[in-house]
Amino acid sequence: MEIIGYLSAIIIGLVMGLIGGGGSILSVPIFVYVFGFDAITATALSLFVVGVTSLVGSAGFIKQGQVDFKTAFTFGIPSILGVLFSRRLVLPHLPHYIIHRWGITLTKEMFLLLLFAILMLIASFKMIRKTERLRLRKDDETNYTILISQGLLVGIVTGLIGAGGGFLIVPALVMLLGINMKKAVATSLFIISMNSILGFLSTMSMVKHDWTFLLTFTALSVIGIFIGLGIAKRMDGKKLKPIFGWTVLAMGIFIIIKEIFLKQQF
């Protein structure tokens, strides 16, 4: 099983290089169900892996001038505030039992995994559907207001369940600001790197880390993103989104079934 987990690290980077996100959608389930980490630790490890991998991936785009720094910081600063809010204020104060009455037991770990699964379902529908919403005018003054509020939302999600939020960031940049897909992917990776690394550092002392394992897994993910970026130069990542979307949908359904219906059997 561990071999599958390490091979998955390469796939995580590959997906991030191709579509500018999606790494955490794979990494959290892998850390929980393949390596056996609890949900809190898994989200922290995911933040580190996704943060470092996206930072390395965005470095090449920075050299090419593809990262829109104004947009990155307009979106990224509210995101960082959202991450810190989740990791420092929300997560530490969540009770062990979210619900423990009426014959229903919902633990903190189950709640986070189910929340993550719901996010996966939303992400999968966004990736599977072929139609795109109409773009708002680039000079629309409300664009940046919406962008800042969505940045805050992505930050809260990132901090809470360890998801970089690339599937939310890329559409926001394309549809709200009219940024082309390649620049949106590049800017998304930069924003994800800021959010994820700061999210990891904010709670690094709260969970135990096996640095040998974490750095090995991250190194494989970095190899994957170089492969993904290489493929992306010759292939449109949007063509692969539906395939990845169906995979994410299946994984989200699996988590829901596992946590709600099969929990007592494992």
Please give a structural write-up.
The chain has 266 residues and is mostly helical. It has one domain. Helices cover 75% and strands 3% of the residues. The protein has helices at 2-19, 23-34, 39-64, 69-90, 108-128, 142-161, 166-177, 181-202, 211-232, 237-260, and strands at residues 97-101, 104-107. The protein has a two-stranded antiparallel sheet with strand order 1-2. Helix 1 packs parallel to helix 3, helix 3 packs across helix 6 (142-161) and helix 4 (69-90) runs parallel beside helix 8. The radius of gyration is 18 Å and the shape is globular. Residues 133-140 have low confidence and may be disordered.
Largest sheet: 2 strands, antiparallel
Number of strands: 2
Helix content: over 70%
Supply the helix-strand structural class: mainly alpha
Unreliable residue stretches? 133-140
Categorize the overall geometry. globular
Strand order of the largest sheet: 1-2
H and E order: HHHHEEHHHHHH
